[in-house]
Design goal:
The complex is a heterodimer of chains A (93) and B (167). Chain A is an alpha+beta fold and 93 residues long. Chain A has a single domain (3-87), classed as Coenzyme PQQ synthesis protein D (PqqD) (Arc Repressor Mutant, subunit A), CATH 1.10.10. Chain A has helices at residues 36-43, 50-60, 68-81; strands at 3-5, 9-13, 19-24, 31-34, 61-62, 85-87. In chain A, the strands form two sheets. In chain A, strands 2-3-4 form a three-stranded antiparallel β-sheet, covered by helices on one side. In chain A, strand 3 and strand 4 (31-34) form a beta hairpin. The longest helix of chain A has 14 residues, at 68-81. The radius of gyration of chain A is 13 Å and the shape is globular. With 167 residues, chain B is mostly beta strands. Chain B contains no helices and 14 strands. Chain B has strands at 5-6, 13-14, 27-31, 34-41, 50-56, 58-63, 69-78, 86-93, 96-98, 102-103, 109-115, 119-131, 143-151, 158-166. In chain B, strands 3, 4, 5, 6, 7, 8, 9, 10, 11, 12, 13 and 14 form a twelve-stranded mixed β-sheet that branches. Classes of the chains: A alpha+beta (93), B mainly beta (167). At the A-B interface, strand 4, helix 1, helix 2, strand 5 and helix 3 of A face strand 1 and strand 2 of B. Chain A: It comes from Arthrobacter nitrophenolicus.
């Protein structure tokens, strides 16, 4: 599965990209991603597969809980539900 | 990315904008003295263009915010029968800046008024009127009734009904 950022989403990042504010054009309120959420947002580029994003996260973070995969999948689903990301063209679900 | 950072649950946080700092003090308006009033025809100051009626002669203004506040005054004519052919608007409010009113086709007027800060007084108010505007002129002896509504971002709306103007 390959995700890309929504085409109707405005994005503002802090200088170090540790904090990202997003606003869908039809939304009434922006959302903010910080920490791992902001890192995941950075990895969503329309090129990386979900598996490659997970691989990079595993290389970056120390997952003591063993729940990273499930949490990332859930997080991506939440981003999709809020129309902040969408499946890249030609991407298999 | 920072290697070796402990993983934590990624979440989507809702950004809640902090409300703008509220100005200290308050702004309020109240109906002052009510009685006989006159209406000057818009743009005309001469005799013979004056109408008479009943309505507010004063507004009690409390603006203790220390800064100028803008309010919007809307005045709606209510006529029991026939077409509405006259409208009124605030012409002047002592100590305030009154912008030229806008009248729509139904003679509803809208005007912005800026009230200077640090006021705690009763201010005289005067009115102007328009009539006709391509329609038949009002008939002598008719009494027009108006309702004035004053609104603003930081005040409780003030409704002043039963302002009358005799043609």
């Amino acid at each position: 599965m390959v995700w890309k950022r929504g085409g109707l989403v405005a994005e503002v990042c802090s200088e170090r990209r540790s904090r990202v504010a997003l606003l869908h054009v039809d939304a009434t309120q922006p959302v903010v991603l910080e920490g791992p959420a902001a890192v995941i947002w950075d990895l969503i580029d329309g090129q990386r597969t979900e598996q490659s994003i997970l691989a990079e996260l595993e290389a970056t973070f120390e997952d003591r809980t063993g729940q990273m995969h499930a949490q990332v999948e859930s997080f991506l689903a939440s981003l999709e539900a809020q129309r902040l990301i969408e499946a890249a063209p030609g991407s298999d679900r | 990315m920072v290697a070796g950072v402990a993983w934590s649950l990624p979440v989507i946080a809702t950004a809640i904008a902090a409300p703008a700092a509220a100005a200290s003090g308050t702004l309020s308006l109240a109906l002052g003295q009510v009685g006989s009033i006159t209406f000057t025809k818009q743009g005309v100051q001469g005799q013979g263009q004056i109408r008479h009626g009943q309505g507010p002669a004063n507004l009690d203004i409390q603006n203790t915010t220390g800064i100028a506040q803008t309010i919007t005054v809307g005045i709606v004519p209510a006529v029991n029968s026939g077409s509405v052919r006259a409208g009124i608007a605030i012409k002047a409010l002592d100590g305030a800046t009154v912008l030229a009113p806008v009248f729509d086709a139904a003679y509803i007027s809208t005007a912005s008024i800026t009230i200077a800060g640090d006021q705690l007084v009763s201010r005289g108010v005067s009115f102007q009127y328009v009539e006709g505007n391509g329609q038949s002129a009002p008939i002598a002896g008719q009494v027009y009734t108006f309702t004035m509504t004053i609104t603003g971002t930081s005040i409780t709306p003030l409704v002043i009904p039963n302002i009358t103007m005799t043609i």
